Amino acid sequence: MECVFGLVGNDFAVVVADTSAVHSILVHKSNEDKIMILDSHKLIAASGEPGDRVQFTEYIQKNVALYQFRNGIPLTTAAAANFTRGELATALRKNPYSVNILLAGYDKETGPSLYYIDYIATLHKVDKGAFGYGSYFSLSLMDRHYHSGMTVEEAIDLVDKCIMEIRSRLVVAPPNFVIKIVDKDGAKEYAWRESVKDAAVASA
Amino acid sequence: MARYDRAITVFSPDGHLFQVEYALEAVRKGNAAVGVRGTDIVVLGVEKKSAAKLQDSRSVRKIVSLDDHVALACAGLKADARVLINRARIECQSHRLTVEDPVTVEYITRYIAGLQQKYTQSGGVRPFGLSTLIIGFDPYTGVPSLYQTDPSGTFSAWKANATGRNSNSMREFLEKNYKESSGQETVKLAIRALLEVVESGGKNIEVAVMTKEHGLRQLEEAEIDAIVAEIESEKAAAEAAKKPPAPAPKET
């Protein structure tokens, strides 16, 4: 029931992920951040097997950092996406990773971009993308309302529409979402959309 | 397989490892490098041999980053340095991946020194022909450090040290003139030590400075020239003060 979706705006890219960590019928926590800051100008929103998700994205993150130290310049978003896909492809016929990824980035020369990378190493450069059961709702809404060159306000408005739709129409809808955005100034957390706050621990 | 297991570094009858000592000779022929530790800053300076006219000097960087908070300069065989630096960079990221913590300066120094030692006790290989100066800040305590490693694989921490060509004169200078300093004073001390053995001028030295907040910063040639000019004028002022006052003109 993990929901991840994202879209590209006029000079930014935004990705949204639900924040529930679920094991069978138990919700471990509802503030699990599934969008990793890959480097200063890249975000990876990942969904899938929790162990694989963390293991794989951290591995990609460290290799992206190593590239930067070795070569003195950061990887482009396209290069990082292709590297990620390559790692998934290599592992696919032996020990596949069950992780779906939306990789958003901003490059000075080419602007914002979004890459759809699924668990069997499909790679597509897209303007909007989504994974999970939530994609049935978010993709339809984005198909209806998306246009190229959206402003941040317009994009967040569309994101909120998608979240509302998922909350109201998905049978086991995740209650909370995190929104992260990447633009020329870097990758950062934009907001959380919480309908259930983890109860604070009562003082003894 | 059988051809590559013969040991090359073996003991001499009087307990020397000649290959290691010859590697140290290679270091002594390499360009001068100096490191100085301040209270809030660590400085590395390296001699830049005059670049060939057609060479793009920007492609020859002698002070490199291993991670956001650790940097390295070396004296000796530069090709060997590339291999060691690459392994160290991988280890920095690997450490972050496995324990979710950045390396401490001591950890990565111990790793590099361990690598250098391994190559003095393995079949079919020769020791690395370089000594390194490693600087950095502890990621949690923020304490600055300076370490040195050599081809034998020994390492230790220093307040200030030099390696490469004329390292003895530089070290002597540092021993005479070292005192706890911070900021620009530390940078000046490092450059003064280098100037003892290197031709003066911004285009003959490469200097990099590391602070906790800003990480590693390579100084521009103009900046180095400015500091060198400051040092020269201080030296001239000191010389003038030392000269005895001119004798009063005699009354005839």
UniProtKB/TrEMBL annotation, chain A:
Which Pfam families does this one have?
Proteasome (PF00227)
Return the CDD domains for the record. Answer: proteasome_beta_type_2 (cd03758)
**Which top-level group of life is the source organism from?**
Eukaryota
State its location(s).
Answer: Cytoplasm; Nucleus
InterPro entries per record? Ntn_hydrolases_N, Proteasome_alpha, Proteasome_beta2, Proteasome_sua/b, Proteasome_suB-type
Keyword list (alphabetical) reads: Cytoplasm, Nucleus, Proteasome
Q: What is its main location?
A: cytoplasm
Recorded GO cellular component terms are: cytoplasm; nucleus; proteasome core complex
According to the record, the segments passing through the membrane are: none
Single Gene Ontology BP term? proteasomal protein catabolic process
Show the PANTHER family listed in the entry: PROTEASOME SUBUNIT ALPHA/BETA
Family (UniProt): Belongs to the peptidase T1B family.
Q: How does it assemble?
A: Component of the 20S core complex of the 26S proteasome. The 26S proteasome is composed of a core protease (CP), known as the 20S proteasome, capped at one or both ends by the 19S regulatory particle (RP/PA700). The 20S proteasome core is composed of 28 subunits that are arranged in four stacked rings, resulting in a barrel-shaped structure. The two end rings are each formed by seven alpha subunits, and the two central rings are each formed by seven beta subunits. The catalytic chamber with the active sites is on the inside of the barrel. Component of the proteasome complex.
Q: What is the role of this chain?
A: Non-catalytic component of the proteasome, a multicatalytic proteinase complex which is characterized by its ability to cleave peptides with Arg, Phe, Tyr, Leu, and Glu adjacent to the leaving group at neutral or slightly basic pH. The proteasome has an ATP-dependent proteolytic activity.
Q: What is this protein called?
A: Proteasome subunit beta
Q: Which organism is it from?
A: Hibiscus syriacus (Rose of Sharon)
TrEMBL record, chain B:
| Broad class of where this protein is predominantly found | cytoplasm
SMART domains per the UniProt record, alphabetical: Proteasome_A_N (SM00948)
Output this protein's name: Proteasome subunit alpha type
Function statement: The proteasome is a multicatalytic proteinase complex which is characterized by its ability to cleave peptides with Arg, Phe, Tyr, Leu, and Glu adjacent to the leaving group at neutral or slightly basic pH.
What organism is this sequence from?
Hibiscus syriacus (Rose of Sharon)
What are the residue boundaries of the Proteasome alpha-type subunits domain, all occurrences included? 4-26
Q: Which PROSITE patterns match?
A: PROTEASOME_ALPHA_1, PROTEASOME_ALPHA_2
Provide the taxonomic classification. Eukaryota, Viridiplantae, Streptophyta, Embryophyta, Tracheophyta
| Protein family membership | Belongs to the peptidase T1A family.
Q: Which SUPFAM superfamilies match?
A: N-terminal nucleophile aminohydrolases (Ntn hydrolases)
